[in-house]
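Progress report, Aim 2. The chain analyzed during this reporting quarter is listed below.
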Amino acid sequence: QVQLVERGGGLVQAGGSLRLSCAASGRTSNNDVMGWFRQAPGKDREFVAAIPWRGGSTPYADSVKGRFTISRDNAKNTVYLQMNSLKPEDTAVYYCASDRPRTLGFVARDVYAYDYWGQGTQVTVSS
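Predicted structure tokens for the chain:
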């Protein structure tokens, strides 16, 4: 089992910034991939960004590319999502998730690929 705890959500004005963190514990592995997803009211959960603990490919959703940055601190078992130039359409519950891919280095965007999820943190961007 892997436990994930997100922190850092809140209310911010459009154009502002927030940094989310996700602390992983339990049976983590250096082969795991950590992902950020979000879900707005009435919409499906969607991929935001992902990063392997080993480093390598860090894909982003087109809607956040150039504004959001995912990073990791292996020593702290923590993944971050720096969100700049926030827009009202970024309003959602943001979830951290963990995947242990069968193919080493594969970084999934599919929500169903991820096995463990945090409880989510609300991000609200006012216009």
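Residues 11 and 124 are 5 Å apart (CA to CA). The first strand starts at residue 2 and ends at 7. These observations will guide the mutagenesis work planned for the next reporting period.
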